[in-house]
Amino acid sequence: MIGVTEFIDTVVRNQAFILRSTGRHLLICAAALLAGTAVAVPAGVLLSYHKKAAGAVLTVFSVINTVPSMVLLGAAMILFGLGVAPSVAVLFLYSLLPILRSTYTGITGIDPRYIKAASGMGMNRRQILLGVKLPLAAPSVISGVRLSAVYVISWATLAAFIGGGGLGDVIWIGLQSYNFHLVFCGAIPATVLALLVSWALNRVVRAVQKHVDGGVTS
Amino acid sequence: MAYGTNYVLKNIDLHIKEGQLAVLIGPSGCGKTTTLQLINRLISPVGGRIIVNGSDISAADPVQLRRNMGYVIQEIGLFPHMTIRRNIETVPRLLGWSRERQTARTLELLKLVGMDETYLDRYPSGLSGGQQQRIGLLRALAADPPIILMDEPFGALDPITRQSLQDEIMRLQKKLNKTVVFVTHDMDEALKIADVIILMKGGAIVQSAVPKELLRHPANEFVESFIGKRRTGSGTPETIGDVMSSRVICAGPGMSAVEAVDLMRREHVSSLFITDGDRRLLGQVTIADLQDAGLSGDPVLSEFTHTDIPALRLSDSARDAFSLMMHEHIDELPVLDDDGRIAGLVTRRSMVVSLARAVWQGDRRD
Questions:
Q1: Among the CATH numbers 3.40.50.300, 3.40.190.10, 3.30.930.10, 3.40.50.1100, which is that of B2-232?
Q2: Which residues 122-161 in chain A show a CB within 8 A of chain B?
Q3: For A124-177, how does the pLDDT look when each residue is reduced to its tens digit (9 = 90+)?
Q4: Nearest Cα to Cα of residue A204 among A150, A136, A141
Q5: What is the pTM of this model?
């Protein structure tokens, strides 16, 4: 019980710092994720028109995602210096693969009958993409964004190492000062954030899927 | 038309008249769907020309061309994320019609197939297969195109739904005066709905004819086998050709009487028709004639032949033949073609079979 009261004390004493770090954390993640979605969705669409190139591109990104994050963070620091920019850049890179892959598989997995009907009725390529392909692939695309979001939120704690700030700062300071209560003050919000965002986006996926299936829950 | 170096279609010379329901039929791989897709440029030909309403479509923008042709596919392909209304309004939307005009047209179309506005905001997944394809048909008709292309549209539906949709398309085609090009592999369907049937095989047209003509005069054995037992026709038998059996047992005048008895026994018949080398009818010999005379001295058939026997012509009326057989108690009558060659035999049995087929349509258990 002593541990709990001390933990609560730590939270109260550092609440401004924790809140500020949480806000920063969210900001970094949102920036990386938005940029990642803005790049990966169009790229995934492009790949769906070039199925031969798609395999190679997806492999390259799989390799990038296996590079240890410390190495990437180090490389980003050398390129961009310290601060928010290199953190966002690395998280952006990590966010690409899941969205790219889910966009590609979402579009290529569409039942060809819809494309056949659409082109047979005189829709051009753009109209087919915007009116048929993207709406039908939307649940898959958003699932990819959700997966990326969970990764990005947990990896963002490492951004503190290169001065990016966020909840990683709280954890890092806690570790350095042997203040494990402070470590939890960083770790718990990061975990809760990841779970919350995952849950929320899952709701979105299900709502969109329901719409795509024509209001019938499967 | 070629994929790789193999020509899929060869020398297709086809003219479809305005307002006709033309059915392309043939075994799978015969090129019927390819031919259909040439018309809306889903496939482009390597050579040759396709003229629609007087202009060569190779000069047309494929997207614009397709908006002027309805297209219905076997897989139906209603967009699952769109309501029935949005599905039907696909082409009018592409053409930029006003909302009021779209709505008015959609309601008019639904009424055409006996569906009401409660369907407007429903989604395809809530409809049965038959209802979905009705909407598929309306979607093709939405912008009132003069030509409708249908690629095995009813192939995935159960037989009862298929029949009612066949009735529907026949009714709509006549009412709206559309030119319909319809692909199927189901001969019953083709015979039922077609104004003209184009039978294809191996990328070429084998025969192009109105259904009756195809049934009466199949161009070759392939056509005959493809129409199968429907040879005597669907619908009411009208001429002798519709009610006769083509199984006639003939013999030459020089056949020995012993051989003839054996032939009759094997074929389970009680009489033989005597013909010359050209299958021209000379007369008839019955088993009774041979038994009465005895077979000593190995006589030949010409000695027993009745030469003055009644015969029918292919073009004679089936109804007259029926009355004749019933009133005169005749069991069988030979049928001659225009050159006096024997073409078949009308028996009480063949008559009954044909009438039964006309009454219980489509039942080919005989």
A1: 3.40.50.300
A2: 122-124, 127, 132, 135-136
A3: 999 999 999 999 999 999 999 999 999 999 989 988 888 888 999 999 999 999
A4: A141
A5: 0.71
> Which tokens is B164 given?
């009612």
Which chain B residue has its CA at the smallest distance from A139's CA? B81
Task: Assess A5–B contact: CB distance below 8 Å, yes or no.
Answer: no
Q: Which domains does chain A have, with CATH numbers?
A: 2-212 (1.10.3720.10)
Whole-number Cα distances in Å, B347 to B272, B302, B320, B360: 14, 24, 14, 20
User: For residue B224, what are the contacts with CB-CB under 8 A and spacing of at least 6?
Assistant: B218, B231
pLDDT digits (tens, 9 = 90+) for A110-125: 999 999 999 999 999 9
Sign of the Cα torsion A49, A51, A53, A59 reads: positive
Interface TM-score (ipTM) > 0.85 = no
Instruction: Give CA torsion, residues A120, A125, A126, A130, to 10 deg.
Output: 60
Q: CATH number of the domain at B242-359, please?
A: 3.10.580.10
Contact B125 A214 (CB under 8 A): yes
C-beta atoms of B40 and A136 within 8 A:
no
Q: What is the DSSP string of B38-79?
A: HHTTSS--SSS--EETTEEGGGS-HHHHHHTEEEEETT----
Residues from chain B contacting residue A132 (CB–CB below 8 Å): 79
Distance CA B348, CA B366 (A): 15
Using CB atoms, which residue from B64, B80, B123 is nearest to A122?
B64
Contact A189, A24 (CB under 8 A): no
**Are the beta carbons of B249 and B272 closer than 8 angstroms?**
yes
Please provide the average confidence, as pLDDT, over all residues in chain A: 91
Asked whether the beta carbons of residue A216 and residue B124 sit closer than 8 angstroms, the reply is no
CB contact (8 A) between residue B125 and residue A213: yes
Chain-chain contact of A114 with B42 (C-beta, under 8 angstroms)? no
Whose structure tokens read 């159960």?
B158
Looking at the partner chain, which of A122, A132, A135 has a beta carbon nearest the beta carbon of B91? Answer: A122
The answer to whether residues A91 and A120 touch, using CB atoms and an 8 Å cutoff, is no
Q: Which of A116, A122, A124 sits opposite B73 (nearest CB)?
A: A116
Look at residues B259, B261, B232 and name the one whose alpha carbon lies nearest to residue B351: B232
pLDDT by residue (tens digit) across B45-84? 888 888 888 888 988 899 999 999 999 999 999 999 999 9
- Where does chain B hold its CATH 3.10.580.10 domain(s)? 242-359
Cβ of B71 and A213 within 8 Å? no
- Please return the burial class of A101, using the count of CB atoms within 10 Å of its CB with bins 0-12, 13-18 and 19+: buried
pLDDT of A153: 94
Query: If interface means Cβ-Cβ distance under 8 Å, which residues of chain B face chain A?
Result: 40, 42, 62-68, 71, 73, 75-81, 90-91, 94, 123-126, 139-140, 149
